[in-house]
From TrEMBL, chain A:
It is found in: Cell membrane. Keywords: Antibiotic resistance, ATP-binding, Nucleotide-binding, Transport. It is a peripheral membrane protein. Its main location: membrane. GO terms for cellular component: plasma membrane. Transmembrane segments: none annotated. GO terms for biological process: response to antibiotic. Residues 5-229 form the ABC transporter domain. SMART domains: AAA. It comes from the Bacteria. This is ABC-2 type transport system ATP-binding protein.
UniProtKB/TrEMBL annotation, chain B:
The lineage of its organism: Bacteria, Bacillati, Actinomycetota, Actinomycetes, Pseudonocardiales. This is ABC-2 type transport system permease protein. The chain crosses the membrane at residues 20-41, 84-104, 124-147, 159-181, 239-260, 298-319, 339-363, 396-417, 437-457, 464-488, 508-527. Keywords: Membrane, Transmembrane, Transmembrane helix.
Amino acid sequence: MSDAISVSGLVKTFGPTRALDGLDLTVRTGEVHGFLGPNGAGKSTTIRVLLGLLRADAGAATLLGGDPWRDTAGLHRRLAYVPGDVSLWPNLTGGEVIDLLGRLRGGLDERRRKDLLDRFELDPRKKGRTYSKGNRQKVALVAALASDVELLILDEPTSGLDPLMEAVFQEAVNEERGNRTVLLSSHILAEVEALCDRVSIIRNGRTVETGTLADLRHLTRTSVSAELAVAPNGLASLAGVHDLVVDGPRVRFEVDTDHLDDALRALVSSGIRSLTSRPPTLEELFLRHYEVPEAAVRS
Amino acid sequence: MTALVGTGALVRLALRRDRLLLPVWVLGLVGITLSTASGMYELYGTEELRQQLGATAGVNPAFLAMLGPIYDHTTIGGILAWRWGVFGALLTGLMAMFLVTRHTRAEEETGRLELIGSTVTGRHAPLAAAVAVSALASLLIGVLTGLGLTGLGERAGGAFALGLAFTAVGWAFTGVGAVAAQLTESARTANAVSGAVLGAAYLLRAVGDAAGDQGPTWLTWLSPIGWLEQVRAFADDRWWVLLLPVALSALLVGAASALVTRRDHGGGLLPTRLGPARAPGSLGSAFGLAWRLQRGMLLGWTLALFALGGVYGAVARGVEQMLEANPALEKVMAQMGGSGGIVDVYLASIVGIVGLFSSIYVVQATLRLRTEETDFRAEPVLATPVRRVSWVASHLAFATLGTAVVLAAAGLGAGLVHGARVGDVGGQVGRLVGAALAHLPAVWVVAGIALALFGLVPKLVMASWAVLVVFLVLGQLGPVLGLDQWAMDLSPFTHIPKLPGADLTATPLVWLTVTAVALMAVGFAGFRRRDIG
């Protein structure tokens, strides 16, 4: 199967600001792809280039086999988009906006429309200006999820949703798995961990990491804490062991996942009484990438 | 007075935001007033010319309806108060209501006021600050007008009576804007309500002024713009009349602040009703959406210009009777309306004014595109299969064809009323609708300018309004200012044959249409190539 989205070396500048600085992104057909990055990293800019709203300065972007700038109308027939901050027409009701966007995309699935309105507990009779932020978001989500399209582009779609509605959203996206490709930009890590097959992490307009969650964890450290029979020896000199704290027979450290084997061997030789090891959460993955000074990331 | 805490800071914020807008309004208005006055020294330089004007303009119902009575034709100041007073009052009122809405309801609608409301600001502070800024701007207009006219050599008493009459009208419409901002949830509707009040104020005094001794002259006293006339600057300087707009202003601002305490933040006074859960069949395309967004404004303009046409049409027959005795006035009218039968000259001049009004509509309708874009409502639509060209075309259709509807309504109103009075409804309706529609190519050029700006330099779309003001000044005041023909030719409205009466020449209409289409093509091409947002 071909890739639904393939972007390489994308550059976009706004005056002196370089919003995208050689960004790469590949989304395979049928997967749910997480698109992670701090505020201002370039997530929305990338999405808006993919939607043909912005024209890239350099680089190549292919969307569903077409050029997002030139084949706009044809491509838009096959996708639905939810912006991060939904702005509605003050005089149109939520139901009218859902129908309008659905018809512009070429039709809505009536059954899904009704089902999603129920599950999101959205009153479609209210006027646009009276909805709260979360409810405006729901209007766009229902319109997108009820559309009969092969690609969903969701730009921080759950900002403003409460945890219950967040769960409804995750459930709804999980039901789409396999049927449609989803590009989900987010900085809610639990959401990405729960939904995404693969993730790309970007920072300062560049991709810093991409792969499955398992791949990414592989590149990182595991936290280990253990209680030993005797004080450990030789641990500190092992390659790949960091932040070692020895408190009598208790030890805590982090170890590069590649060197986990050696570290455990050293622990075993000291006699293990208890052991907990924890794979890195996405949180740690995320923090590690964002906290590294810029120079280190670029090198 | 805790309710007013933070007013000072909000006033400073407003002055900072409007550091360009306010000087443009204030200096622009004062500048037009003073340059009109200086032009008049040449036009009405001799005692004889002024006497001639007084004998004709002062009694002519057409001039009475358009400009009001002339109370002092012996001084340039008095002539200025007649020729420019009502228009200056309209513009000052417009400025006041826009300023108040901009700093109250518009801020509330975007949610920015909520951010400010959570800081140490009293409940009444935002309204008080907006009123203060608008009142201050109006006061500046009045004082600078007074100083400027005195500087030109006019009597100080009259100069300040006229200037402060502008101020008082500004204050009255500050009050109107303040109340309108409380009633509705959207700034657009608030401006429409205030605009309707302003239009009614103009029409009430038009009917009252032209009514004649037996008619309802008291109608003039119901209008803040009528009060400006009744100050009779340079003639009697009736300062006490200024108490009326000041009292009205105090009353309205008081009412507005009482309303503030009675409603929720972000809400209006009228309860919000639920709407339909499903979209009607018409709302399924870019054009359907544009119709939904534009229809209210189109309807409002159509009704307003129909009424304006009717009022102007009502006095056309009186022109005939009055002008027959006064050939001197015919010269003045010919400047505004071209040559031809006397009534036709008058009708052509009102059709010219209607053409200018309809170009306000065309700019509003075209710039709706930019509002949709900056409010992030264009993005979701353009992310559907709707092409950029279709999206622009859907709104432009309302700008261009809607103008035809608005112009035809004005011609219809004038034709029906004038036709009924002269016993030729069928004939007059046809002539006047046709004469009004002849302005379409010029209005389309205005739409073309707005669209070209939107496509090429979207940040500067507001310059469309400046262009429109230039056309207004060229068309209405060009002869008074003694401008050269080449300068007058810059305005597309100069090239429109002065129908009815003049010969219909197709060439300028064709060229204007070609220019308009070319400008629109530039706008489309620019928009297809540029970034959205």
